[in-house]
C-alpha cells in the first residue's frame, strides 16, 4: 500500500515535536525530583500499586468519573472526547495494521487510512467501517457539547468558564476543527470510493450528489492533517498538556508522592495536570459571594506555571478546601497556596515567650484553644460536660497557653508553627493523658495532621458522642429545628462529618441545607485569607446565612468557636456551639461526680 | 379640615414632636409600642452633663404631651403602611388611620453585648452593661457583684459594639465616652474606696462641659484612664474577671483582675427603625440608620414624600440634640403640609 503523500507532513512534524518536547519535560521533571520521591517511583513500579494506577488512569483520564459526579453532561463531554478519541486511535491502529499486515507501520497510516485504502472487500471492513464511524460520531457529539458549553455554560452546571491564554486558543480552535475535518475528508473520499461506514459513506454519497468531491478530497485531507499538526504543536504550551501529564500525576500520587511544604517537580506536574476545567471557579466563595474570580485556583495555578506568582494572590484564599474537594484532577490546591506563601514570609519571630509549665496529670487533656477563650460559653459548656460525666481531666491551656500553630501554618510560616507545635506537644505529653480533647476545629486539624501524638485526639463533638454512647451522660431531646454548619477544618479538613450530626440528633431535630458535609460553605471568618477586610468577610457570611436559612431552622449549630463568632453578627436565629447544646440538654442524672472512669470506658 | 400627622415611636423625639405639631395646629396621632412615653430615658438615672435626674426630663415631655391632647396609642405597633390619595394609610394595632404625613422616631437599641462574646456578657455574672449599671443607680444606688459584695475594682470598657469592624459597626456611638465618665464618677460617689479604670481607644468629649467632666473625674474622683482595647475577659473561680488589655500608651500587654466589668454598649438602629425602614423602602445610611434626604440641607425628610425622620433612628445623639432634631422635623412637616394645601 502506498501510504505517503506530502500532506502527512504537518501531522508527522506535529507529532514528533510533541513527543520530543513532552519527553524532554518528563525527563527533566523526573531527574530533578527529590531523591525520596524518585525512590518511591522505583518501588511503586515494581509493586501491585501499578494495577491501581492503570485503573485510575482509565477511570479519570478516559472516563472522567470525578467530572461526572460534579455534572453528568460535563462528564459526558469530557468522556466522549477523551475515551472516544482514545478508541479511535486504538482501533485505527489495529485496522491499519491488520490491513497492511505490518506491525511496524508509520504513525500516519491509521490517521489517513481511508485516503490510501479504497477497496472494502476485506471480511473485517464492515466491522471497522461501522465502529470507526460510530466512534467518530461519539467524539463529534463531545465536540458539539464543547461548542455549546462556550455559549451556555450553565447547562453544564458552570456559572463561569475559564478565560484562556493564547496557546489555549490555538489548541482549542484546532481541536474543535480536527473531528469535523476528519468527517469531511473521510466523507469526500467515501463519496468517490464508497469505502466508509454508515456516517461517512452516507454523508459522502449525499455530498457527491451536488459537489465535485473528486476535487475537494485532497484539500480536505490537507486541512485535516494541518489541524492535527497544529494541535500537537500547541499542546505542550496549552492546557491540553494536562492529557499526558495527568497520567504521570496519577502514577506518582499512587506511589505516595505529595506536595507538602515545598514546591517540588511533583508540584510542577500537578500544575501541568490542570485542564482548566473551571470547576474550582464556581466552588470558590470569593467568586460567588464577592464576584472576584481572580483568586480562583485555576488562575493561581496559571501564575505558577507562568512563573508570575503575585503575593496578593497567594494570600487571597481562605484555604477553605472547596475547590480541592471538587477538583477532578485532585490537585492539592491548598498546599500549593501555602507553599507559595512560605516563599514570601520572613521569619523574624522570637519564641522566648514560650514558658514551659508543668501540667497536672490526668487521663484526659482538654485544650480549649485561643478561639474558645474568646467564646467563653463554649468553654463553660465543656467544663460542665466534663464534670457531669465525672471524667478525670486537666485543662491544659486554662491560662491561655500557646497557640496551636495552625494560624501560622496557614500564613505559610511552617518553621514558626513547628516551634509552637514542639512546645505544645511537650506539654500535652507531660500530662500523661490518653486522650486529647479540643473544642476548636482549627486546633483539631493541626493536632491530627502535624503533632504526631501517641494518644487519641478527639474533637469535642466526637468525645461527647462517646460519652453519650457509653451512657456517661444522658441527654434530653427537644423538638427544636436546627441547622448544622460544618466548619472547614473539621469537615473537609479532617473528614469529621457524621459524629456531630449523630450527637446533635440526640438533642434536637436537624434540618438540612443544600450545603452539607463536603459541600459546606466557609463561614467567611477564615484565618487563611489575610487579604479580606471585615466588610468582605461579612459579605461572605451574609451569603452563607441566606443558604443556611432555606429550610427555616430555629437555630444554627456549629462546632468551631471561630465559626460561631463569625455567624453571630447579623444572626437571624441564635447561633450555638454543639457543646452548649449538649450542656443544656444534659439530664440531671445520677452520675457520681467524682467517680473516675478509665479512658477506654469513655472513648474506647 | 385639619391635616393629620402620624408619629411612630414615643421616645424623646416622638413625644416632643407630637406636642409641637399640635401647637402648630395639626391633628396628631402618636403610636408607641410600649406602655409609656419616653423610650430609653425611662432606663436612665441621672443625665450628663449636669447630673439632673432623667425623671425631670420625662416629666417635662409627658406634661407637654398630655397638655397638647395629642392622641396617643400605647401598646401599638404598625403592621402595614400603604399610599392613599396622596397621603398614607397606616394599620396601627387594631386601628386603620389615614395621615397626610408620617414622622418616624423609632430610636435606637443598645448593641447586644452577647455578640462580643469574648467579654463574657450573659456568661460571667460580673460582666454587666452601662444599661444594667443605670438600673443599679435607679434602684437606690446599690452596687453589688454576684456574691452580693461591694466591688473593690471596677473596669469600664469603651466602644463595645462601636468602632469595631469585627462586629460590622465601624461608627462611633458618641455618647458612651461621656456616659462612662459620668458613671465612673457616680460609682466613686457610692464606693469611694473602689478603684475605677476606664479602657478607651480615644476619648470623644465633643460637647461643652464634657471635657470638664473628664477632668473632674480624674482630679476629684481619681478615676484611672488606660488607653487600650480589652481583648478578652475570663472568669476566675471566685467570680472575679481577668481582663487582657493592650496598653497602647505604655506599649505592652496588661492583665488585670476586676470585681465588676461594665461594657459601654453602643447604638444600633432599633428593631422598629429597621422594620419601618423596610416597610416603606426608605434609604439607609451605610451604617443602616435611616437616611435623610440631604446630609446638610434637609436632614428631616427622606426619599419618600411626606415621610420624615427625627431622633436617634437617624444616628446616635444626645438628648439635647434629639430635642433639637425633633423640633427641626416639625418645621419641615409644617412646610410640607402647608405647601401641599395650595
Ligand atoms: C447608657 C446610655 C446613657 C445615656 N445617657 C444620656 C445622658 O445622660 N444624657 C443624654 O443627653 N443622652 C443620654 N443617652 C442618649 C439618649 O438615651 C438618647 O439621646 C435618647 O434616648 C434618644 O431618644 P429617641 O426618642 O430618639 O429614641 P428612643 O429613646 O429609643 O425612643 C424610641 C421610641 O420608639 C418606640 N418604638 C420603636 N419602634 C417602634 C414601633 N415599631 N412602633 C411603635 N413604637 C416604636 C420605642 O418603644 C421608644 O419608646 C444615653 C444613652 C445610653 C445608651
Ligand atoms: S484546579 Fe482543578 S478544578 Fe480548577 S480548573 Fe484545574 S482541574 Fe479544574
Ligand atoms: S481554598 Fe476556598 S477560597 Fe481558596 S481558592 Fe479554593 S475555594 Fe477559593
Ligand atoms: S463615644 Fe467613646 S466609647 Fe462611644 S463609640 Fe465613640 S469613642 Fe467609643
Written account of the structure:
The complex is a heterodimer of chains A (604) and B (342). By secondary structure, chain A is mostly helical. Chain A folds into four domains: 6-243; 259-343, no CATH class; 364-468, Rossmann fold; 473-588, 3-Layer(aba) Sandwich (Rossmann fold). Helix content of chain A is 57%, strand content 5%. Chain A contains 30 helices and eight strands. Chain A has helices at residues 8-31, 35-45, 49-63, 65-70, 72-100, 108-111, 113-116, 125-151, 166-193, 198-208, 213-234, 242-254, 265-272, 279-283, 285-288, 297-305, 311-315, 322-326, 333-344, 370-373, 376-388, 406-410, 414-430, 441-450, 460-469, 498-505, 534-548, 561-568, 578-585, 599-602; strands at residues 364-367, 393-395, 435-438, 456-459, 481-484, 509-511, 555-558, 575-577. In chain A, strands 2-1-3-4 form a four-stranded parallel beta sheet. A four-stranded parallel beta sheet of chain A has the order 6-5-7-8, sandwiched between helices. In chain A, helix 1 (8-31) runs parallel beside helix 11 (213-234), helix 3 (49-63) runs antiparallel to helix 12 and helix 8 (125-151) runs antiparallel to helix 9. Chain A is elongated, with a radius of gyration of 30 Å. Chain A starts with 7 loop residues before the first helix and ends with a helix. Chain B is α/β, with parallel strands linked by helices and 342 residues long. Chain B folds into two domains: 4-107 and 270-337, FAD/NAD(P)-binding domain; 113-266, FAD/NAD(P)-binding domain (3-Layer(bba) Sandwich), CATH 3.50.50.60. In chain B, 27% of the residues lie in helices and 28% in strands. Chain B is built from seven helices and 19 strands. Chain B has helices at residues 12-23, 54-68, 130-138, 176-190, 210-219, 271-280, 319-341; strands at residues 4-8, 27-31, 46-47, 52-53, 71-73, 78-84, 87-92, 95-99, 101-104, 108-110, 127-129, 153-160, 195-200, 224-235, 241-247, 252-258, 260-265, 267-269, 307-309. In chain B, the strands form five sheets. Chain B has a seven-stranded mixed beta sheet. In chain B, strands 5-2-1-9-19 form a five-stranded parallel beta sheet, covered by helices on one side. In chain B, strand 3 and strand 4 (52-53) form a beta hairpin. In chain B, helix 1 runs parallel beside helix 2 (54-68), helix 1 (12-23) runs parallel beside helix 7 and helix 3 (130-138) crosses helix 4 (176-190). The model of chain B has no long low-confidence stretch (mean pLDDT 95). At the A-B interface, helix 21, helix 27 and helix 28 of A face strand 14 of B. Residues 158-159, 162-163, 172-174, 176-177, 204, 264, 266 of chain B line the site of one iron/sulfur cluster.
Amino acid at each position: 500500500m502506498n501510504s505517503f503523500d506530502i500532506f502527512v507532513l504537518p501531522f508527522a512534524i506535529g507529532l514528533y515535536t510533541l513527543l520530543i518536547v513532552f519527553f524532554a519535560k518528563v525527563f527533566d521533571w523526573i531527574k530533578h525530583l527529590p531523591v525520596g520521591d524518585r525512590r518511591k517511583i522505583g518501588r511503586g513500579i515494581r509493586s501491585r500499586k501499578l494495577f491501581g494506577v492503570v485503573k485510575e488512569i482509565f477511570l479519570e483520564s478516559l472516563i472522567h468519573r470525578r467530572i461526572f459526579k460534579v455534572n453528568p453532561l460535563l462528564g459526558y463531554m469530557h468522556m466522549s472526547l477523551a475515551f472516544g478519541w482514545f478508541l479511535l486511535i486504538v482501533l485505527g491502529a489495529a485496522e491499519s495494521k491488520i490491513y497492511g499486515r505490518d506491525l511496524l507501520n508509520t504513525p500516519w497510516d491509521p490517521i489517513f487510512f481511508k485516503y490510501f485504502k479504497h477497496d472494502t472487500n476485506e471480511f473485517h471492513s464492515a466491522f471497522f467501517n461501522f465502529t470507526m464511524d460510530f466512534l467518530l460520531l461519539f467524539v463529534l457529539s463531545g465536540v458539539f457539547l464543547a461548542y455549546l458549553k462556550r455559549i451556555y455554560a450553565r447547562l453544564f452546571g458552570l456559572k463561569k468558564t475559564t478565560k484562556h491564554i493564547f496557546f489555549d486558543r490555538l489548541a482549542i480552535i484546532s481541536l474543535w476543527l480536527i473531528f469535523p475535518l476528519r468527517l469531511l475528508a473521510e466523507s469526500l473520499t467515501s463519496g468517490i470510493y464508497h469505502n466508509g461506514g454508515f456516517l461517512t459513506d452516507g454523508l459522502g454519497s449525499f455530498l457527491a450528489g451536488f459537489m465535485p468531491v473528486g476535487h475537494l478530497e485532497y484539500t480536505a485531507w490537507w486541512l485535516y492533517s494541518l489541524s492535527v499538526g497544529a494541535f500537537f504543536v500547541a499542546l505542550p504550551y496549552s492546557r491540553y498538556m494536562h492529557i499526558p501529564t495527568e497520567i504521570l500525576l496519577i502514577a506518582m500520587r499512587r506511589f505516595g508522592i505529595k506536595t507538602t511544604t515545598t514546591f517540588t517537580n511533583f508540584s510542577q506536574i500537578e500544575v501541568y495536570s490542570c485542564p482548566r476545567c473551571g470547576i474550582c471557579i464556581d466552588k470558590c466563595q470569593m467568586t460567588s459571594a464577592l464576584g472576584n474570580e481572580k483568586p480562583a485556583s485555576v488562575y493561581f495555578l496559571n501564575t505558577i506555571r507562568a512563573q508570575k506568582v503575585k503575593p496578593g494572590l497567594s494570600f487571597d484564599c481562605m484555604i477553605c478546601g472547596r475547590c480541592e474537594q471538587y477538583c477532578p484532577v485532585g490537585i492539592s490546591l491548598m498546599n500549593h497556596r501555602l507553599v507559595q506563601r512560605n516563599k514570601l514570609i520572613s521569619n523574624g519571630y522570637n519564641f522566648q515567650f514560650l514558658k514551659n509549665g508543668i501540667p497536672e496529670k490526668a487521663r484526659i487533656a482538654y485544650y480549649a484553644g485561643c478561639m474558645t477563650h474568646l467564646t467563653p460559653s463554649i468553654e463553660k459548656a465543656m467544663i460542665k460536660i466534663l464534670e457531669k460525666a465525672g471524667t478525670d481531666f486537666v485543662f491544659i491551656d486554662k491560662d491561655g497557653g500557646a497557640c496551636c500553630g495552625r494560624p501560622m501554618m496557614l500564613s505559610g510560616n511552617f518553621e514558626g508553627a513547628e516551634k509552637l507545635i514542639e512546645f505544645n506537644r511537650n506539654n500535652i505529653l507531660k500530662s500523661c493523658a490518653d486522650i486529647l480533647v479540643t473544642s476548636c476545629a482549627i486546633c483539631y486539624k493541626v493536632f491530627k495532621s502535624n503533632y504526631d501524638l501517641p494518644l487519641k485526639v478527639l474533637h469535642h463533638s466526637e468525645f461527647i458522642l462517646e460519652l453519650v454512647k457509653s451512657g456517661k451522660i444522658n441527654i434530653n431531646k427537644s423538638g427544636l429545628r436546627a441547622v448544622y454548619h460544618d466548619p472547614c477544618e473539621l469537615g473537609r479538613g479532617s473528614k469529621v462529618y457524621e459524629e456531630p450530626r449523630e450527637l446533635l440528633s440526640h438533642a434536637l431535630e436537624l434540618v438540612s441545607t443544600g450545603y452539607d458535609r463536603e459541600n459546606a460553605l466557609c463561614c467567611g471568618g477564615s484565618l487563611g485569607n489575610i487579604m479580606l477586610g471585615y466588610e468582605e468577610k461579612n459579605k461572605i457570611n451574609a451569603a452563607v446565612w441566606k443558604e443556611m436559612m432555606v429550610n427555616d431552622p430555629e437555630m444554627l449549630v456549629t462546632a468551631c468557636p471561630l465559626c460561631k463568632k463569625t455567624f453571630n453578627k447579623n444572626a437571624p436565629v441564635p447561633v450555638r456551639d454543639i457543646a452548649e447544646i449538649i450542656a443544656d440538654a444534659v439530664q440531671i442524672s445520677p452520675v457520681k461526680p467524682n467517680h473516675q472512669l478509665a479512658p477506654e470506658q469513655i472513648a474506647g | 379640615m385639619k391635616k393629620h400627622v402620624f408619629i411612630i415611636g414615643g421616645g424623646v423625639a416622638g413625644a416632643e414632636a407630637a406636642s409641637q405639631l399640635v401647637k402648630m395646629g395639626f391633628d396628631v396621632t402618636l403610636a408607641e409600642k410600649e406602655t409609656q412615653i419616653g423610650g430609653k430615658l425611662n432606663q436612665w438615672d441621672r443625665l450628663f452633663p449636669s447630673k439632673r435626674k432623667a425623671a425631670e426630663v420625662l416629666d417635662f415631655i409627658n406634661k407637654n404631651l398630655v397638655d397638647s391632647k395629642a392622641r396617643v396609642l400605647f401598646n401599638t405597633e404598625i403592621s402595614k403602611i400603604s399610599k392613599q390619595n396622596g397621603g398614607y394609610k397606616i394599620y396601627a394595632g387594631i386601628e386603620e388611620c389615614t395621615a397626610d404625613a408620617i414622622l418616624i422616631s423609632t430610636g435606637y437599641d443598645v448593641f447586644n453585648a452577647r455578640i462580643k462574646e469574648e467579654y463574657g456578657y450573659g456568661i460571667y455574672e460580673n460582666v454587666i452593661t452601662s444599661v444594667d449599671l443605670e438600673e443599679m443607680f435607679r434602684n437606690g444606688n446599690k452596687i453589688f457583684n454576684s456574691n452580693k459584695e461591694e466591688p473593690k475594682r471596677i473596669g469600664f470598657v469603651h466602644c463595645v459594639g462601636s468602632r469595631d469592624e469585627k462586629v460590622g459597626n465601624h461608627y462611633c456611638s458618641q455618647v458612651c465616652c461621656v456616659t462612662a465618665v459620668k458613671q465612673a464618677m457616680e460609682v466613686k460617689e457610692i464606693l469611694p474606696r473602689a478603684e475605677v479604670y476606664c479602657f478607651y481607644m480615644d476619648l470623644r468629649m465633643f460637647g461643652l462641659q464634657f471635657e470638664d467632666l473628664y477632668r473632674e473625674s480624674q482630679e476629684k474622683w481619681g478615676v484611672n484612664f488606660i488607653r487600650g482595647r480589652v481583648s478578652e475577659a475570663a472568669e476566675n473561680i471566685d467570680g472575679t474577671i481577668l481582663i487582657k488589655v493592650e496598653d497602647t500608651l505604655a506599649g505592652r500587654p496588661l492583665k488585670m483582675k476586676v470585681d465588676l466589668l461594665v461594657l459601654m454598649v453602643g447604638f444600633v438602629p432599633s428593631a422598629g427603625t429597621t422594620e419601618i425602614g423596610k416597610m416603606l423602602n426608605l434609604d439607609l445610611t451605610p451604617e443602616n440608620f435611616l437616611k435623610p434626604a440631604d446630609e446638610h440641607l434637609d436632614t428631616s425628610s427622606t426619599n419618600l414624600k411626606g415621610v420624615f425622620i427625627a431622633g436617634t433612628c437617624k444616628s446616635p445623639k444626645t438628648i439635647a440634640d434629639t430635642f433639637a432634631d425633633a423640633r427641626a422635623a416639625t418645621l419641615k412637616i409644617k412646610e410640607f403640609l402647608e405647601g401641599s394645601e395650595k
